[in-house]
Amino acid sequence: MVDFYNGNTNIKKAGIKTGFTSDEIKEYIKCRDDILYFTKNYVKIITLDYGLQLFHPYEYQERMLDAFNNHRFVINLLPRQTGKSTIVAAYILHYAIFTPEKSIGILANKEATAIEILDRIKRMFENLPHFLQPGVKEYNKKNVKLGNDSNIMSFATGSDAVRGRSFNFVYLDEFAFVDNADEFFTSTYPVISSGKSTKVIITSTPNGMNLFYKIWSDAKKERNSFFPLEVKWNEHPDRDEEWREETINNIGLKKFNQEFKCQFHGSSDTLLDGNVLTSLVWEDPIFQDNNFSVYRNIDKTHNYIMTVDVSEGVGLDYTVINITDVSVNPYEQVAVWRSNQIEPVILPEILNNIAYKYNQAFVLIETNSVGSQVANLLYSEYEYENVIITKIDKSDNLVSGGFSNRIDYGLRMTKKTKNIGCTNIKSLIENNLYKVNDFNTIEELQSFSRKNNSFQAETGKHDDIVMTLVSFGWLSTQDYFSELTQNDTIKMLIEKRKEDIENELLPVGFYDDSIDSLEDRGYPTNFIS
Fold first, then answer.
1. Both 260 and 192 in a single domain?
2. Do residues 459 and 388 share a domain?
3. How far apart are alpha carbons 8 and 513 in whole angstroms?
């Protein structure tokens, strides 16, 4: 006789011995060894049109089950309303039933979403025949513990969501919509990657170019251990061209492209052109610690410029040191130091140490807030001579030799200065005259958008690294900069544009094979000016 859990006749209580028929034993083994058979024959779901019925997964859902079975780490790029939660719930149910003593975490951007996914699993579990149920020890809103000691728990994502816990399997739902995803993933990944057989499944639709985008892109390029699985909008059997046109009419083309075609769009009206943003490619650092990401080794024959944005160091905005090699063409971002915990009073020593390592780099510090204190300490207390000094001349900021009465050890960012810096760094990057290597920089550029006739980070985003680029953009317009680097930035931009125009004018089929000149082929020498 079956003993039920808390009087629920759909759930078998753990620890109660029951007999099995030979047919039930055969079915149990078949379900254990074939998740698709188990899903099609025993997993029931509630549908809008037909109520409770057996789950018949679509082809792409079967593909997802296969990927979950054969890979430890899987990242899924999925359109809206494709039944991702249902197929993941079926997989978690099978995993919990047939692999004893496993700890499973369901994490979503909202606690209610994680609980709803657990509810799906519970509904599936309650509709299984008793011979497939291992029994239940705990069965509540956020946690299910089975008689085989497998445990399924639901959480909202947060930096401390799973701290102190061990998991065999973690599911991250709608990961592109997780706030502070970097902080969460940094704290969570050691927990879920410590075992040799731990599994991680990530699913999401796009939401700009953030950590989900980075993991997905790296997976596509085989730069991490995740297996990438993408589902197209028209793989759903109910979606055809007529449905597409109706949906576009209702929500607009851009929304459709993001939520159903799974295109990674940055924010609208960004400083950089959208096509340029999507073409930016980050690199893996050759060295990295908690604060410092280094992308190139130091060349003792090169000149470096450090542009610095200083925060209060209270866990909110970041203090950033952005290091650019100005002895190469294009200029190149070679290292980024970034922290939101360092107090300004400690920063001059850090700047001094890093600057000396980078061939006594020239340092430009934004001085609007506590940056002024940092710049003055670096110059006076540490006697660092390569602090860039500016002066106000007829409402313009100019680099100064330090012989004026109205000088700043650093750069006071005014509206005019910011506009100049934004315009110039935009031109440098879009004309391939400045190479960005850092992912966090690219991520900030995705949400650095126009607001009130200026550019700034969108609500909830950061622009501290971008502002060091803006400072560099301003500096590169100064006469001092061309003297320092022996490069005239404005001239470089003109030459680059001239080259582009010439390429556009060159007739199709004309090329230089290094054998005959154009003049040798009978064309006038002034054909290309």
1. no
2. yes
3. 82
Q: What DSSP state is assigned to residue 345?
A: G
Q: Is 349 a catalytic residue?
A: no
Sign of the Cα pseudo-torsion (180, 182, 187, 191, in order): positive
* Residue 247 structure tokens: 């949906």
Of 360, 370, 350, 389, whose CA–CA distance to 475 is shortest?
Answer: 389
Q: 326 lies in which domain range?
A: 279-491
- pLDDT for 170-205, tens place per residue? 999 999 988 777 777 777 676 666 667 889 999 999
Report the half-sphere exposure of 214 (CA within 13 A, side-chain side): 16
218 and 332, same domain (yes or no): no
Crossing angle of helices 181-193 and 211-220, in 10° steps, is 50
Contacts of 529 (CB under 8 A, 6+ apart): none
Spatial distance between the Cα atoms of 420 and 416, rounded to a whole number of angstroms: 6
- What are the CB-based long-range contacts (under 8 Å, 24+) for 51-57? 52/127, 55/86, 55/90, 55/124, 57/83, 57/87, 57/90
Q: pTM score, two decimals?
A: 0.71
Q: Which of 101, 126, 138, 174 is catalytic?
A: 174
